[in-house]
Amino acid sequence: MEAEKAVKTLYGKERVALVMQDLTAASEGSSEQEAGWFDLFSSRYWKGIPNFSLIPGLINKVYGF
Hints:
Elements: H1 2-11, H2 16-27, H3 43-46, H4 51-63
Helix pairs in contact: 1-2
């Protein structure tokens, strides 16, 4: 498999099984429901994020600056 070959080149043959296991677990996805545009403004997504740092990111995504 190409992924295993790349992992072997990057990390060495002794870490191939561990890294491949991590990749497989990560690819299984999350049970969390996807958020819509209006959900971004709910209190759930504003916790711990200063308001001034979130707005420029949203503008960047919407207008593609």
